[in-house]
Amino acid sequence: MHRIIKEKLPRHIAIIMDGNGRWAKKNLLKRVMGHEKGADSVRTVVKTCRELGIQYLTLFAFSVENWQRPKSEVRALSSLLEEYLRLELQEMKETGIKLITIGDIGRLPKTVRDALSDAMGKTSESRGMVLNLALSYGGRDEIVDAVKRILRDSKSTDIDENTITKDFFSGYLHTANIPDPDLLIRTSGEYRLSNFLLWQLAYAELYFTDVLWPDFSRDDLIKAIVDYQRRERRFGLISE
Ligand code: IPE
Ligand code: IPE
Ligand code: MG
Q1: Following DSSP, what letter does each residue of 209-240 receive, concatenated?
Q2: Of 86, 115, 172, 212, which sits most exposed with the smallest number of CB within 10 A?
Q3: Angle, in degrees to the nearest 10, between helices 71-94 and 110-123
Q4: The pairing of beta strand 129-137 with beta strand 183-186
Q5: Pairing of strands 129-137, 97-102
Q6: 3-class SS of residue 65
Q7: Tens of pLDDT along 193-216?
Q8: 19: number of Cβ within 10 Å
Q9: Considering only CA atoms, which of 193, 225, 181 is closest in space to residue 16?
Q10: Structural domains in the chain?
Q11: How many CB atoms are located within 10 Å of the residue 77 CB?
Q12: CB-based contacts of 231: which residues, under 8 Å, 6+ apart?
């Protein structure tokens, strides 16, 4: 079996959870059923990451582009999220998970925003693992948003050309207080970023699998981590 080296765990794993629709089609079901089954994979992955001792897990749950899907699908996704938050809150508290979000949360329906702030408030003291949900998230939107806020702040504080370093800029992204992902996983055999964490993934190790998200299991996650641990991260340097 796969063996994980405890000392070499990725600190932050980010996942593009893709393939719910194709899973449903393959099983002659409605797309929504794929999302429902996908929510079970979320449960499994959150639990496994927590058990392994991963510090940060970011899940791409809804992209800013996904708003263009049929209304009924968008509605189903937000109900599922709301349900997930309500059902998992207790477990999150018990297992020390702190929930945070990135993305344009203001665009989500009020009931979802309420469920989110409730869950975030009640888990804010947790220290076990940060679960970061990317909701209504787009990487380019995030960068443009950062530029706008820097410009706004420059009117009241002295920000000039020399103030703007990479670290300074990172501090204006939605991910301001969390380290960059070490490992990015994308399921369903697609080889693209789809506007996910464009700035933050600069040096992440990329792992692609054909497994559709609803089929993604504990073992699939462990396989991805083992693969990550076999790699040499050079960051532009040389091996020696
Ligand atoms: C991922 O599955 C879930 C979301 C994007 C919300 P998809 O719904 O994109 O599934 P496919 O890509 O159509 O199979
Ligand atoms: C990316 O998947 C977004 C999420 C997983 C939430 P999509 O299915 O929306 O991406 P594309 O359309 O294949 O690029
Ligand atoms: Mg997709």
Answers
A1: --S-GGG--HHHHHHHHHHHHTS---TTS---
A2: 86
A3: 20
A4: unpaired
A5: parallel
A6: helix
A7: 999 999 999 999 999 999 999 999
A8: 25
A9: 193
A10: 6-140+180-229 (3.40.1180.10)
A11: 22
A12: 205
* CA gap 240, 198 in Å, rounded: 30
Ligand 2 mutation target, pool 15, 22, 62, 63, most atoms within 8 A of CB? 63
Distance CA 165, CA 76 (A): 41
Residue range 128-180, pLDDT digits in tens:
999 999 999 999 999 999 999 999 999 999 999 999 999 999 999 999 999 99
pTM of the model: 0.97
Q: What number is the average pLDDT over the span 81-98?
A: 98
Q: Ligand 2 center to residue 209 CA distance, Å?
A: 15
Residue 1 banded pLDDT, cuts 50, 70, 90: low
Q: What is the pLDDT of residues 215-234, one digit of tens each?
A: 999 999 999 999 999 999 99
